[in-house]
Automatic annotation (TrEMBL):
Domain Major facilitator superfamily (MFS) profile residues, every copy: 14-479
PROSITE patterns linked to this entry: MFS, SUGAR_TRANSPORT_1
Gene Ontology molecular function terms on file: transmembrane transporter activity
Name of the protein this chain belongs to: Drug resistance transporter, EmrB/QacA subfamily
Compartmental location: Cell membrane
InterPro entries: EmrB-like, MFS, MFS_dom, MFS_trans_sf, Sugar_transporter_CS
Bilayer topology annotation: Multi-pass membrane protein
Gene Ontology terms describing biological process: response to antibiotic
SUPFAM superfamilies: MFS general substrate transporter
GO CC entries: plasma membrane
Transit peptide found in the keyword field: no
Residue spans crossing the bilayer: 12-32, 52-69, 81-103, 109-128, 140-161, 167-189, 201-221, 227-250, 271-294, 300-323, 335-354, 360-382, 450-475
Organism: Actinacidiphila rubida
Protein backbone atom coordinates (compact mmCIF):
# COMPACT_ATOMS: atom_id res chain seq x y z
CA UNK A 1 0.00 0.00 0.00
CA UNK A 2 1.49 3.39 -0.99
CA UNK A 3 2.14 5.99 1.65
CA UNK A 4 -0.62 8.45 2.31
CA UNK A 5 0.41 11.91 1.14
CA UNK A 6 0.94 14.53 3.84
CA UNK A 7 -1.90 17.05 3.84
CA UNK A 8 -1.15 20.44 2.27
CA UNK A 9 -0.87 23.03 5.11
CA UNK A 10 -2.55 25.67 2.89
CA UNK A 11 -5.41 23.44 1.75
CA UNK A 12 -8.20 25.24 3.69
CA UNK A 13 -7.16 28.64 2.38
CA UNK A 14 -6.95 27.15 -1.12
CA UNK A 15 -10.51 25.86 -0.71
CA UNK A 16 -11.76 29.46 -0.34
CA UNK A 17 -10.39 30.41 -3.77
CA UNK A 18 -11.53 27.18 -5.44
CA UNK A 19 -15.01 27.86 -4.00
CA UNK A 20 -14.97 31.45 -5.34
CA UNK A 21 -14.17 30.15 -8.84
CA UNK A 22 -16.92 27.52 -8.62
CA UNK A 23 -19.41 30.14 -7.41
CA UNK A 24 -18.54 32.35 -10.39
CA UNK A 25 -19.19 29.56 -12.89
CA UNK A 26 -22.45 28.40 -11.27
CA UNK A 27 -24.04 31.78 -10.68
CA UNK A 28 -23.09 33.10 -14.13
CA UNK A 29 -26.04 31.34 -15.76
CA UNK A 30 -28.72 32.82 -13.49
CA UNK A 31 -27.10 36.28 -13.27
CA UNK A 32 -27.34 36.52 -17.06
CA UNK A 33 -30.92 35.15 -17.08
CA UNK A 34 -32.10 37.99 -14.82
CA UNK A 35 -30.18 40.60 -16.89
CA UNK A 36 -31.33 39.21 -20.26
CA UNK A 37 -34.46 41.39 -20.79
CA UNK A 38 -32.37 44.56 -20.26
CA UNK A 39 -29.58 43.32 -22.54
CA UNK A 40 -32.11 42.41 -25.22
CA UNK A 41 -33.63 45.89 -25.19
CA UNK A 42 -30.23 47.63 -25.12
CA UNK A 43 -28.62 45.70 -27.99
CA UNK A 44 -31.80 45.13 -30.01
CA UNK A 45 -31.53 41.35 -29.79
CA UNK A 46 -34.41 39.64 -31.62
CA UNK A 47 -36.73 37.25 -29.78
CA UNK A 48 -35.42 34.44 -32.02
CA UNK A 49 -31.80 35.13 -30.98
CA UNK A 50 -32.54 35.83 -27.31
CA UNK A 51 -32.21 32.17 -26.25
CA UNK A 52 -28.71 32.06 -27.75
CA UNK A 53 -27.38 34.29 -24.99
CA UNK A 54 -27.96 31.31 -22.67
CA UNK A 55 -27.53 28.49 -25.21
CA UNK A 56 -24.15 29.69 -26.58
CA UNK A 57 -22.71 29.29 -23.07
CA UNK A 58 -24.41 25.96 -22.36
CA UNK A 59 -23.38 24.40 -25.68
CA UNK A 60 -19.70 25.31 -25.32
CA UNK A 61 -19.60 24.41 -21.62
CA UNK A 62 -21.47 21.11 -21.85
CA UNK A 63 -19.77 20.06 -25.09
CA UNK A 64 -16.19 20.66 -23.96
CA UNK A 65 -16.28 19.54 -20.31
CA UNK A 66 -14.75 16.11 -20.94
CA UNK A 67 -12.00 17.74 -22.99
CA UNK A 68 -11.41 20.24 -20.15
CA UNK A 69 -11.23 17.44 -17.59
CA UNK A 70 -8.64 15.55 -19.60
CA UNK A 71 -6.60 18.72 -20.20
CA UNK A 72 -6.50 19.15 -16.41
CA UNK A 73 -5.18 15.59 -16.03
CA UNK A 74 -2.53 16.06 -18.73
CA UNK A 75 -1.40 19.64 -18.17
CA UNK A 76 -1.96 19.94 -14.42
CA UNK A 77 -5.06 20.99 -12.48
CA UNK A 78 -3.57 24.21 -11.11
CA UNK A 79 -2.36 25.36 -14.54
CA UNK A 80 -5.72 24.56 -16.12
CA UNK A 81 -7.56 26.25 -13.26
CA UNK A 82 -5.63 29.52 -13.63
CA UNK A 83 -5.88 29.61 -17.44
CA UNK A 84 -9.62 28.92 -17.12
CA UNK A 85 -9.97 31.87 -14.73
CA UNK A 86 -8.02 34.24 -16.99
CA UNK A 87 -10.05 33.19 -20.03
CA UNK A 88 -13.39 33.41 -18.22
CA UNK A 89 -12.57 36.93 -17.00
CA UNK A 90 -11.50 38.06 -20.48
CA UNK A 91 -14.65 36.61 -22.07
CA UNK A 92 -16.79 38.32 -19.40
CA UNK A 93 -15.10 41.66 -20.15
CA UNK A 94 -15.83 41.26 -23.87
CA UNK A 95 -19.46 40.37 -23.13
CA UNK A 96 -19.92 43.30 -20.76
CA UNK A 97 -18.54 45.66 -23.40
CA UNK A 98 -20.63 44.12 -26.23
CA UNK A 99 -21.95 46.63 -28.78
CA UNK A 100 -24.05 44.17 -30.80
CA UNK A 101 -25.66 40.73 -30.66
CA UNK A 102 -22.77 38.88 -32.32
CA UNK A 103 -20.21 40.24 -29.85
CA UNK A 104 -22.34 39.20 -26.86
CA UNK A 105 -23.04 35.70 -28.25
CA UNK A 106 -19.34 35.18 -29.08
CA UNK A 107 -18.34 36.24 -25.57
CA UNK A 108 -20.86 33.85 -24.02
CA UNK A 109 -19.52 30.94 -26.11
CA UNK A 110 -15.99 31.88 -25.04
CA UNK A 111 -17.12 31.89 -21.39
CA UNK A 112 -18.39 28.34 -21.93
CA UNK A 113 -15.04 27.22 -23.40
CA UNK A 114 -13.03 28.51 -20.43
CA UNK A 115 -15.72 27.36 -17.96
CA UNK A 116 -15.20 23.85 -19.34
CA UNK A 117 -11.51 24.10 -18.35
CA UNK A 118 -12.20 25.69 -14.99
CA UNK A 119 -15.01 23.56 -13.51
CA UNK A 120 -13.41 20.07 -13.67
CA UNK A 121 -10.02 21.49 -12.62
CA UNK A 122 -11.61 23.02 -9.49
CA UNK A 123 -13.33 19.80 -8.40
CA UNK A 124 -10.34 17.57 -9.11
CA UNK A 125 -8.05 19.96 -7.16
CA UNK A 126 -10.20 19.30 -4.10
CA UNK A 127 -10.01 15.58 -4.75
CA UNK A 128 -6.21 15.55 -4.72
CA UNK A 129 -5.58 18.19 -2.00
CA UNK A 130 -7.78 16.76 0.78
CA UNK A 131 -6.44 13.36 1.78
CA UNK A 132 -8.07 12.88 5.20
CA UNK A 133 -11.60 11.43 5.06
CA UNK A 134 -13.01 13.72 7.76
CA UNK A 135 -11.50 16.87 6.24
CA UNK A 136 -12.55 15.76 2.75
CA UNK A 137 -16.13 15.45 3.95
CA UNK A 138 -16.10 19.05 5.21
CA UNK A 139 -14.41 20.34 2.03
CA UNK A 140 -16.91 18.66 -0.26
CA UNK A 141 -19.72 19.82 2.00
CA UNK A 142 -18.69 23.43 1.43
CA UNK A 143 -18.15 22.83 -2.30
CA UNK A 144 -21.52 21.07 -2.62
CA UNK A 145 -23.34 23.90 -0.87
CA UNK A 146 -21.81 26.43 -3.26
CA UNK A 147 -22.53 24.31 -6.32
CA UNK A 148 -26.15 23.91 -5.25
CA UNK A 149 -26.80 27.43 -3.97
CA UNK A 150 -24.84 29.34 -6.61
CA UNK A 151 -27.73 29.45 -9.06
CA UNK A 152 -30.06 31.03 -6.48
CA UNK A 153 -27.37 33.48 -5.37
CA UNK A 154 -27.10 34.44 -9.04
CA UNK A 155 -30.78 35.38 -9.10
CA UNK A 156 -30.24 37.84 -6.23
CA UNK A 157 -26.97 39.24 -7.59
CA UNK A 158 -28.47 39.57 -11.07
CA UNK A 159 -31.43 41.45 -9.62
CA UNK A 160 -29.20 43.85 -7.63
CA UNK A 161 -26.84 44.57 -10.54
CA UNK A 162 -29.59 44.98 -13.13
CA UNK A 163 -31.82 47.10 -10.91
CA UNK A 164 -29.16 49.43 -9.46
CA UNK A 165 -26.42 49.47 -12.14
CA UNK A 166 -27.12 47.92 -15.57
CA UNK A 167 -27.08 44.54 -17.30
CA UNK A 168 -23.40 44.84 -18.31
CA UNK A 169 -22.35 44.46 -14.66
CA UNK A 170 -23.88 40.98 -14.63
CA UNK A 171 -20.87 40.06 -16.82
CA UNK A 172 -18.27 42.51 -15.46
CA UNK A 173 -18.78 41.12 -11.93
CA UNK A 174 -17.04 37.90 -13.02
CA UNK A 175 -13.78 39.83 -13.45
CA UNK A 176 -13.69 40.60 -9.72
CA UNK A 177 -14.36 36.94 -8.81
CA UNK A 178 -11.67 35.76 -11.25
CA UNK A 179 -8.97 38.22 -10.11
CA UNK A 180 -9.43 37.20 -6.45
CA UNK A 181 -9.38 33.49 -7.37
CA UNK A 182 -6.27 33.89 -9.59
CA UNK A 183 -4.29 35.65 -6.83
CA UNK A 184 -5.41 33.04 -4.28
CA UNK A 185 -4.56 30.14 -6.62
CA UNK A 186 -1.07 31.50 -7.20
CA UNK A 187 -0.41 31.91 -3.48
CA UNK A 188 -2.15 28.93 -1.89
CA UNK A 189 -2.93 26.10 -4.33
CA UNK A 190 -0.28 23.39 -4.33
CA UNK A 191 -1.14 20.46 -6.57
CA UNK A 192 0.49 17.14 -5.57
CA UNK A 193 3.05 15.98 -8.14
CA UNK A 194 1.57 12.46 -8.11
CA UNK A 195 -1.23 11.55 -10.47
CA UNK A 196 -0.33 13.63 -13.56
CA UNK A 197 -1.43 11.80 -16.73
CA UNK A 198 1.50 11.64 -19.17
CA UNK A 199 -0.37 10.15 -22.14
CA UNK A 200 -1.09 12.02 -25.37
CA UNK A 201 -4.49 13.66 -25.90
CA UNK A 202 -7.11 11.47 -27.58
CA UNK A 203 -8.06 13.79 -30.49
CA UNK A 204 -10.74 11.51 -32.09
CA UNK A 205 -12.32 11.14 -28.65
CA UNK A 206 -12.35 14.94 -28.15
CA UNK A 207 -14.04 15.50 -31.53
CA UNK A 208 -16.66 12.74 -31.10
CA UNK A 209 -17.50 13.60 -27.46
CA UNK A 210 -17.73 17.35 -28.07
CA UNK A 211 -19.80 16.99 -31.26
CA UNK A 212 -22.07 14.38 -29.64
CA UNK A 213 -22.73 16.44 -26.49
CA UNK A 214 -23.28 19.65 -28.49
CA UNK A 215 -25.79 17.80 -30.72
CA UNK A 216 -27.59 16.44 -27.66
CA UNK A 217 -27.80 19.78 -25.83
CA UNK A 218 -28.74 21.66 -29.01
CA UNK A 219 -31.38 19.03 -29.79
CA UNK A 220 -33.16 19.72 -26.50
CA UNK A 221 -32.86 23.47 -27.12
CA UNK A 222 -34.52 23.11 -30.53
CA UNK A 223 -37.19 20.83 -29.04
CA UNK A 224 -38.25 23.67 -26.74
CA UNK A 225 -38.66 26.11 -29.64
CA UNK A 226 -39.55 23.91 -32.67
CA UNK A 227 -41.22 20.91 -31.00
CA UNK A 228 -40.11 17.31 -30.47
CA UNK A 229 -41.33 16.14 -33.88
CA UNK A 230 -39.48 18.77 -35.95
CA UNK A 231 -37.02 17.44 -38.51
CA UNK A 232 -34.06 19.38 -37.10
CA UNK A 233 -34.80 18.19 -33.54
CA UNK A 234 -34.97 14.53 -34.57
CA UNK A 235 -31.87 14.91 -36.76
CA UNK A 236 -29.86 16.36 -33.88
CA UNK A 237 -30.89 13.54 -31.52
CA UNK A 238 -29.98 10.90 -34.13
CA UNK A 239 -26.63 12.61 -34.74
CA UNK A 240 -25.98 12.74 -30.97
CA UNK A 241 -26.74 9.01 -30.61
CA UNK A 242 -24.46 8.05 -33.52
CA UNK A 243 -21.59 10.30 -32.40
CA UNK A 244 -21.73 9.21 -28.74
CA UNK A 245 -21.95 5.53 -29.73
CA UNK A 246 -18.91 6.01 -31.97
CA UNK A 247 -17.19 7.72 -29.02
CA UNK A 248 -17.77 4.67 -26.79
CA UNK A 249 -16.38 2.35 -29.49
CA UNK A 250 -13.27 4.54 -29.96
CA UNK A 251 -12.70 4.84 -26.19
CA UNK A 252 -12.79 1.07 -25.78
CA UNK A 253 -10.02 0.64 -28.36
CA UNK A 254 -7.53 3.52 -28.08
CA UNK A 255 -4.47 3.26 -25.85
CA UNK A 256 -4.99 6.58 -23.99
CA UNK A 257 -8.73 7.39 -24.12
CA UNK A 258 -10.23 10.82 -23.38
CA UNK A 259 -12.74 9.11 -21.06
CA UNK A 260 -11.50 5.73 -19.83
CA UNK A 261 -14.67 3.64 -19.70
CA UNK A 262 -13.66 2.44 -16.22
CA UNK A 263 -14.56 5.96 -14.98
CA UNK A 264 -18.25 5.64 -15.91
CA UNK A 265 -18.82 1.89 -15.74
CA UNK A 266 -17.87 1.70 -12.05
CA UNK A 267 -21.21 1.28 -10.33
CA UNK A 268 -20.96 4.07 -7.76
CA UNK A 269 -19.69 6.78 -10.08
CA UNK A 270 -22.18 5.79 -12.78
CA UNK A 271 -24.98 5.94 -10.21
CA UNK A 272 -23.88 9.45 -9.13
CA UNK A 273 -23.68 10.80 -12.69
CA UNK A 274 -27.11 9.40 -13.56
CA UNK A 275 -29.01 10.32 -10.38
CA UNK A 276 -27.44 13.79 -10.17
CA UNK A 277 -28.17 14.52 -13.84
CA UNK A 278 -31.83 13.60 -13.33
CA UNK A 279 -32.08 15.66 -10.13
CA UNK A 280 -30.71 18.71 -11.94
CA UNK A 281 -33.41 18.28 -14.62
CA UNK A 282 -36.02 18.84 -11.91
CA UNK A 283 -34.10 21.63 -10.18
CA UNK A 284 -33.52 23.70 -13.33
CA UNK A 285 -37.21 23.45 -14.19
CA UNK A 286 -38.09 24.71 -10.72
CA UNK A 287 -35.91 27.83 -11.07
CA UNK A 288 -37.42 28.55 -14.46
CA UNK A 289 -41.07 28.27 -13.46
CA UNK A 290 -40.85 29.84 -10.02
CA UNK A 291 -39.01 32.85 -11.46
CA UNK A 292 -41.84 33.36 -13.99
CA UNK A 293 -44.46 32.69 -11.31
CA UNK A 294 -43.00 35.20 -8.84
CA UNK A 295 -42.43 37.99 -11.39
CA UNK A 296 -45.42 37.61 -13.73
CA UNK A 297 -48.17 36.16 -11.52
CA UNK A 298 -47.17 37.46 -8.09
CA UNK A 299 -45.79 40.75 -9.46
CA UNK A 300 -42.40 40.58 -7.69
CA UNK A 301 -39.52 42.70 -9.00
CA UNK A 302 -36.34 40.94 -10.19
CA UNK A 303 -34.53 41.66 -6.92
CA UNK A 304 -37.46 40.59 -4.72
CA UNK A 305 -37.88 37.33 -6.63
CA UNK A 306 -34.19 36.64 -6.12
CA UNK A 307 -34.55 37.12 -2.36
CA UNK A 308 -37.58 34.82 -2.40
CA UNK A 309 -35.19 31.93 -3.19
CA UNK A 310 -33.02 32.62 -0.11
CA UNK A 311 -34.73 29.98 2.10
CA UNK A 312 -33.68 27.36 -0.44
CA UNK A 313 -30.09 28.64 -0.35
CA UNK A 314 -30.13 28.45 3.45
CA UNK A 315 -31.57 24.93 3.29
CA UNK A 316 -28.82 23.86 0.88
CA UNK A 317 -26.07 25.22 3.09
CA UNK A 318 -27.51 23.48 6.18
CA UNK A 319 -28.13 20.22 4.28
CA UNK A 320 -24.67 20.18 2.75
CA UNK A 321 -22.45 21.33 5.62
CA UNK A 322 -24.41 20.28 8.72
CA UNK A 323 -26.22 17.12 7.60
CA UNK A 324 -24.22 15.71 4.68
CA UNK A 325 -20.72 16.49 5.96
CA UNK A 326 -21.46 15.33 9.53
CA UNK A 327 -23.12 12.04 8.54
CA UNK A 328 -20.82 11.16 5.64
CA UNK A 329 -18.25 9.57 7.93
CA UNK A 330 -20.91 7.51 9.73
CA UNK A 331 -23.31 6.28 7.05
CA UNK A 332 -23.09 5.03 3.48
CA UNK A 333 -23.42 7.66 0.70
CA UNK A 334 -26.68 6.17 -0.60
CA UNK A 335 -28.29 6.70 2.84
CA UNK A 336 -27.65 10.43 2.33
CA UNK A 337 -28.30 10.72 -1.41
CA UNK A 338 -31.56 8.75 -1.63
CA UNK A 339 -33.25 10.40 1.42
CA UNK A 340 -31.92 13.77 0.24
CA UNK A 341 -33.55 13.42 -3.18
CA UNK A 342 -36.71 12.13 -1.47
CA UNK A 343 -36.95 15.19 0.82
CA UNK A 344 -36.35 17.43 -2.22
CA UNK A 345 -39.18 15.61 -4.04
CA UNK A 346 -41.52 16.29 -1.08
CA UNK A 347 -40.57 19.98 -1.25
CA UNK A 348 -41.17 19.94 -5.01
CA UNK A 349 -44.60 18.33 -4.49
CA UNK A 350 -45.54 21.14 -2.07
CA UNK A 351 -44.43 23.74 -4.65
CA UNK A 352 -46.62 22.04 -7.26
CA UNK A 353 -49.64 23.21 -5.20
CA UNK A 354 -49.14 26.86 -6.30
CA UNK A 355 -52.24 28.83 -7.26
CA UNK A 356 -52.70 32.36 -8.59
CA UNK A 357 -53.32 33.61 -5.05
CA UNK A 358 -51.00 31.30 -3.09
CA UNK A 359 -49.36 32.59 0.08
CA UNK A 360 -45.56 32.68 0.01
CA UNK A 361 -45.37 31.64 3.68
CA UNK A 362 -47.83 28.76 3.36
CA UNK A 363 -46.69 27.16 0.08
CA UNK A 364 -43.44 28.51 -1.30
CA UNK A 365 -41.49 28.84 1.95
CA UNK A 366 -41.86 25.22 3.20
CA UNK A 367 -41.41 23.86 -0.32
CA UNK A 368 -38.21 25.82 -0.91
CA UNK A 369 -36.74 24.95 2.50
CA UNK A 370 -37.33 21.21 1.95
CA UNK A 371 -35.96 21.44 -1.60
CA UNK A 372 -32.80 23.10 -0.29
CA UNK A 373 -32.31 20.70 2.61
CA UNK A 374 -32.82 17.66 0.41
CA UNK A 375 -30.63 18.77 -2.48
CA UNK A 376 -27.89 20.02 -0.14
CA UNK A 377 -27.80 16.70 1.70
CA UNK A 378 -27.69 14.73 -1.57
CA UNK A 379 -25.27 17.04 -3.41
CA UNK A 380 -22.60 16.70 -0.77
CA UNK A 381 -21.91 12.96 -1.11
CA UNK A 382 -22.63 13.14 -4.86
CA UNK A 383 -19.84 15.66 -5.42
CA UNK A 384 -17.56 13.59 -3.24
CA UNK A 385 -18.42 10.32 -5.00
CA UNK A 386 -17.79 11.83 -8.45
CA UNK A 387 -14.12 10.90 -8.05
CA UNK A 388 -14.82 7.81 -5.94
CA UNK A 389 -12.02 5.27 -6.26
CA UNK A 390 -10.51 6.70 -9.47
CA UNK A 391 -6.85 6.48 -10.30
CA UNK A 392 -5.14 9.84 -9.62
CA UNK A 393 -4.48 10.38 -13.35
CA UNK A 394 -8.25 10.15 -14.04
CA UNK A 395 -9.37 12.65 -11.36
CA UNK A 396 -9.90 15.50 -13.82
CA UNK A 397 -12.02 13.60 -16.30
CA UNK A 398 -14.05 11.99 -13.48
CA UNK A 399 -14.72 15.47 -12.11
CA UNK A 400 -15.72 16.62 -15.60
CA UNK A 401 -18.31 13.86 -15.78
CA UNK A 402 -20.26 15.19 -12.79
CA UNK A 403 -20.24 18.67 -14.35
CA UNK A 404 -21.29 17.18 -17.70
CA UNK A 405 -24.22 15.35 -16.10
CA UNK A 406 -25.33 18.65 -14.50
CA UNK A 407 -25.01 20.69 -17.71
CA UNK A 408 -26.77 18.12 -19.88
CA UNK A 409 -29.38 17.63 -17.15
CA UNK A 410 -29.98 21.37 -16.95
CA UNK A 411 -30.41 21.70 -20.71
CA UNK A 412 -32.77 18.72 -20.85
CA UNK A 413 -34.73 20.02 -17.85
CA UNK A 414 -35.27 23.46 -19.33
CA UNK A 415 -36.48 22.09 -22.69
CA UNK A 416 -38.47 19.10 -21.41
CA UNK A 417 -40.32 20.85 -18.57
CA UNK A 418 -40.90 23.99 -20.65
CA UNK A 419 -42.58 21.85 -23.33
CA UNK A 420 -44.71 20.03 -20.73
CA UNK A 421 -45.77 23.32 -19.15
CA UNK A 422 -46.71 24.87 -22.51
CA UNK A 423 -48.74 21.79 -23.46
CA UNK A 424 -50.59 21.77 -20.10
CA UNK A 425 -51.35 25.50 -20.41
CA UNK A 426 -52.77 25.06 -23.93
CA UNK A 427 -54.88 22.11 -22.76
CA UNK A 428 -56.24 24.09 -19.78
CA UNK A 429 -57.20 27.03 -22.00
CA UNK A 430 -58.98 24.66 -24.38
CA UNK A 431 -61.11 23.18 -21.61
CA UNK A 432 -61.84 26.43 -19.72
CA UNK A 433 -62.32 28.97 -22.52
CA UNK A 434 -65.92 30.17 -22.65
CA UNK A 435 -65.45 33.14 -25.01
CA UNK A 436 -62.59 34.89 -26.87
CA UNK A 437 -62.84 37.69 -24.31
CA UNK A 438 -61.39 35.35 -21.67
CA UNK A 439 -58.00 35.55 -23.42
CA UNK A 440 -57.88 39.28 -22.62
CA UNK A 441 -58.45 38.75 -18.90
CA UNK A 442 -55.20 38.75 -16.91
CA UNK A 443 -56.62 36.43 -14.24
CA UNK A 444 -57.57 33.84 -16.88
CA UNK A 445 -54.10 34.01 -18.48
CA UNK A 446 -52.43 33.73 -15.07
CA UNK A 447 -54.55 30.71 -14.07
CA UNK A 448 -53.64 28.96 -17.34
CA UNK A 449 -49.92 29.69 -16.84
CA UNK A 450 -49.93 28.55 -13.21
CA UNK A 451 -51.66 25.31 -14.19
CA UNK A 452 -48.84 24.69 -16.69
CA UNK A 453 -46.17 25.44 -14.09
CA UNK A 454 -47.87 23.12 -11.61
CA UNK A 455 -48.02 20.21 -14.07
CA UNK A 456 -44.34 20.66 -14.97
CA UNK A 457 -43.35 20.78 -11.28
CA UNK A 458 -45.28 17.53 -10.69
CA UNK A 459 -43.21 15.94 -13.47
CA UNK A 460 -40.07 17.31 -11.80
CA UNK A 461 -41.23 15.68 -8.56
CA UNK A 462 -41.43 12.32 -10.32
CA UNK A 463 -37.95 12.80 -11.78
CA UNK A 464 -36.55 13.50 -8.29
CA UNK A 465 -38.22 10.35 -6.97
CA UNK A 466 -36.52 8.39 -9.77
CA UNK A 467 -33.19 10.00 -8.74
CA UNK A 468 -33.75 8.76 -5.18
CA UNK A 469 -34.43 5.20 -6.39
CA UNK A 470 -31.38 5.14 -8.69
CA UNK A 471 -29.09 6.54 -5.99
CA UNK A 472 -30.28 3.89 -3.52
CA UNK A 473 -29.98 0.99 -5.97
CA UNK A 474 -26.75 1.89 -7.79
CA UNK A 475 -24.57 3.63 -5.16
CA UNK A 476 -23.39 0.84 -2.86
CA UNK A 477 -20.06 2.23 -1.58
CA UNK A 478 -19.28 1.87 2.09
CA UNK A 479 -18.69 4.63 4.64
CA UNK A 480 -16.04 7.00 3.21
CA UNK A 481 -13.52 6.85 6.05
CA UNK A 482 -12.09 3.44 5.21
CA UNK A 483 -9.79 3.45 2.14
CA UNK A 484 -10.02 0.32 0.02
CA UNK A 485 -8.65 -0.87 -3.28
CA UNK A 486 -9.96 0.87 -6.36
CA UNK A 487 -12.63 -1.29 -7.94
CA UNK A 488 -11.57 -2.95 -11.16
CA UNK A 489 -7.86 -2.28 -10.74
CA UNK A 490 -5.41 -5.13 -10.88
CA UNK A 491 -2.82 -3.78 -8.51
CA UNK A 492 -2.83 -2.15 -5.15
CA UNK A 493 -0.49 0.54 -6.59
CA UNK A 494 -3.39 1.97 -8.59
CA UNK A 495 -5.39 2.98 -5.52
CA UNK A 496 -6.21 6.68 -5.65
CA UNK A 497 -4.99 7.48 -2.14
CA UNK A 498 -5.31 11.27 -2.40
CA UNK A 499 -8.68 11.02 -4.07
CA UNK A 500 -12.08 9.93 -2.77
CA UNK A 501 -11.77 6.54 -1.07
CA UNK A 502 -14.74 4.41 -0.11
Amino acid sequence: MPETLKPDPKRWTALIFIAIAQLMVVLDATVVNIALPSAQADLGISDANRQWVVTAYTLAFGGLLLFGGRVADLWGRKNTFIVGLFGFAAASAIGGAAVNTSMLLGARALQGVFGALLAPAALSLLAVMFTDAKERAKAFGIYGAIAGAGAAVGLILGGVLTEYLNWRWALFVNIAFAVVAIIGAGLYIREPAQGRNRNRLDVPGVILASAGLVSLVYGFTRAASDGWGAGLTIGLFVAAAVLLLAFVVVESRVKAPLLPLRVVTERNRGGVYLSLGLAVIGMFGLFLFLTYYLQIVMGYKALTSGFAFLPMVAGMIVGSTQIGARLMLRVRPRYLMAPGFLVAAIGMAILAQIKVDSSYAAVLLPGLVLMGLGMGTAFMPAMSMATHGVRPEDAGVASAMVNTSQQVGGSIGTALLNTLAASATTSWIGSHLTSPADLKKQLFINEAAVHGYSVAIYWATGILLLSAVLAFVLVNAGVQNNPERTEGDDSVEDVAVPVIAH
